[in-house]
Every structure is written in structure tokens, then in C-alpha cells.
Specification:
CATH superfamily of the largest domain: 5'-nuclease
Oligomer: single chain
Strand content: 15-25%
Number of domains: 3
Strand order of the largest sheet: 3-2-1-4-5
Shape: elongated
Length: 339
């Protein structure tokens, strides 16, 4: 990419230098032309495909209307100069308005594809765009979700989220810096090594200072859900009517359900808060508290589930070491223990 840009720049400058009398003015024109084209090419990378296509269609419609106006203007009693000026002004105005309106409408509703409205209402249709925030990128699990195919559509990364991620990566705190750089690596992997359609969204809200508030405003503007692990952002967004996709809630909902009376086994890693308790963890991170297992630290013990508590941090399973009566019951397949 950089080599192609450099080659184009040098070629444009050389053509301007050799093709214009005097050399230096032509060189300047060639350089300015190359800079303008490269800047436009970089800007196009940040545009959403719908906005780009909408802008092209809108510009085309504006040009057609301008040509129609030009044909009609020939019947007016105007001099050649007046007619040329009028046609030029109308051409620029209609082409510009068509491009801007087409880009906005194409970005928001794809009006230039009328059949899209019927397709979107079909069975299994849903929001094609999902806005992801900094916490989801740093978390990293989104890469696995994309690879499994459970996430469809376009992943929208706002420019202000990317800026916040860069600030975290440049932090003086070693832990924050490592998390920020990991987030940048994950984002680059999503762009280059996965099948995800990742778009960097340049829309910003200069009058909104906080990144969370900007995410809510962008979600309302694009009518798209926000993927986040931020509890406070989720609450604020839901109050504003924005749909939230929380990866933590998804992970908790996929954890296996345990009913009182079921038997399982777990590796005890430490003592519990209450006397006599031992604590272990399942492979999915679920905490298991076992009464009477404090002396079994470093060993795998069997237990009978007595209750399950759902907290904001996840599930907690409480159990007790089985008695002789419990041992006579049909045993369930033990859950895999985590060391």
C-alpha cells in the first residue's frame, strides 16, 4: 500500500515536471494532484460502503438533473457566457447536493436499494451493524465469537474509540499499556485475519465530551446496537433506548445449569470465607463453595449441590460433601474440575 502510494506520487510529479513548460510549475501541480488523490483515497477507507455507494448514486442523479436543466436552459434568451455560468453553477450545486444527501441516506437507510427494505423485513433479519466499544476490543473474546460465526454483519469501530484505545496503549501504567496494545492487536487481527467486516467510523460529536455518551449518540444515529462489557454504559444506553449486546451476559447465560441435589466434583484451591469451607473453580470460571472441604485443599472432592446463586459477577455454586444417603442416590456425570 505504501509502495503504491509512493510510486503514484513520484509518477504524478514526474509527469507534471516533464509535461509542463518550465518544469517547476508543472512539478508543483503534479505534487498537489498526487497529494489530493492520496488524501481522497485514505478518506475513502474510512467511509462505510453504504455511504460510498449512496454518494455515487446521489451524484449521478444530480448530474442527470443538471443535464436536464442545461437542455431546458437553451430555450432561454441568454448569452453563451451567461448560459455557461448558469449551467456550471447548477451542475456543481446539484452534483454536490446529490453526493451529500446520497451519502447520508445511503449510510442510514440505503434508499438507493429499494428492495433492501423488503429483504430486511424477512425471516431471520436483524441489525447488520454492531458498534463495538473499547472494553469489548480489550476483552478479546470478540475474536473467538467472530471465528465461530455467531456474529454477523458489520463491526463498526468509531474513530473516537480507536483514539481512546491508543491512549490506553500509550499509558504510563504498564498494565494499562499492555491491555491497550493487546486491544490494538486484536483489532488488527479482526481486520486482517478474520472474515469480519470491520469499518472505522469517522462520525464524531464534538459537543459531546465523554466517549460513552458519543457511543450512545452514534448508536441512535445509525440505529445499531452497541457491544460492550461496561455495566454503566449498558445502563445509560438502555435508558436512551439503545440495544446492548453484553458479552459477559452471553458468557454467563452459556454456563451449565446446576440443580440442587446434583452431584459433581471440583478441585479445591483455597479455604472459603466461612469456617470449614473449601473453594474451587470450574473450567468456565464458576466458583464452587463446598462445606466441609477446607481440609481437602489441593485435592479433587465430590459434592452435592445445595444451591446456586446468580450474581452480577456470574454464578456461584454452593455444595456439601456427600453423606452416605447421598452416595446411595444415582450419581450424575461429574463436571470437569479446574485447577
Amino acid at each position: 500500500m505504501h509502495f503504491a502510494r509512493a510510486l503514484f506520487f513520484v509518477s504524478s510529479a514526474a509527469i507534471g515536471f516533464l509535461g509542463y513548460p518550465g518544469g517547476v510549475p508543472g512539478l508543483a501541480v503534479g505534487i498537489l494532484f498526487a497529494v489530493a488523490v492520496i488524501a481522497l483515497e485514505i478518506k475513502l477507507h474510512t467511509l462505510h460502503p453504504n455511504a460510498l455507494m449512496g454518494g455515487i448514486v446521489g451524484t449521478s442523479i444530480g448530474l442527470v438533473l443538471a443535464i436536464g436543466f442545461g437542455i431546458g436552459a437553451r430555450g432561454l434568451d441568454l448569452s453563451n457566457t451567461q448560459e455557461a455560468v448558469l449551467q456550471g453553477v447548477v451542475l456543481l450545486a446539484l452534483a454536490y447536493l446529490g453526493m451529500i444527501i446520497g451519502a447520508i441516506k445511503g449510510r442510514q437507510g440505503e434508499w438507493w436499494l429499494p428492495w433492501k427494505h423488503f429483504v430486511d423485513r424477512g425471516i431471520g433479519s436483524g441489525p447488520s451493524e454492531k458498534i463495538i466499544d473499547t472494553s469489548v476490543i480489550i476483552d478479546g473474546r470478540i475474536r473467538e465469537l467472530v471465528d465461530t460465526g455467531f456474529i454477523e454483519g458489520t463491526l463498526v469501530v468509531p474513530q473516537f474509540v480507536l483514539h481512546e484505545l491508543q491512549l490506553v496503549a500509550d499509558s504510563s501504567d504498564a498494565l494499562k499499556r499492555a491491555r491497550g496494545r493487546r486491544g490494538l492487536d486484536i483489532l488488527r487481527g479482526l481486520q486482517e485475519e478474520s472474515d469480519a467486516d470491520v469499518v472505522i467510523e469517522s462520525i464524531d460529536f464534538a459537543n459531546v465530551p465523554e466517549v460513552d455518551d458519543k457511543l450512545v449518540e452514534l448508536a441512535l444515529k445509525l440505529h445499531a446496537p452497541v457491544m460492550t462489557n461496561d455495566f454503566n454504559l449498558a445502563k445509560v444506553a438502555q435508558v436512551r433506548g439503545v440495544e446492548i449486546l453484553n458479552i459477559n451476559e452471553l458468557a454467563n447465560s452459556l454456563k451449565p445449569a446446576f440443580l440442587p441435589g446434583e452431584t459433581m466434583s471440583v478441585f479445591i484451591v483455597k479455604d472459603g470465607k466461612e469456617p470449614g469451607q473449601g473453594v474451587g473453580y470450574l473450567d468456565d470460571g464458576t466458583m464452587v463453595v463446598v462445606d466441609g472441604a477446607c481440609e481437602d485443599r489441593g485435592e479433587t472432592v465430590g459434592l452435592v449441590v445445595t444451591s446456586v446463586l446468580q450474581t452480577s459477577a456470574g454464578k456461584m455454586v454452593f455444595g456439601k460433601k456427600p453423606t452416605e444417603a447421598d452416595a446411595q442416590r444415582p450419581r450424575e456425570a461429574p463436571a470437569q474440575a479446574s485447577r
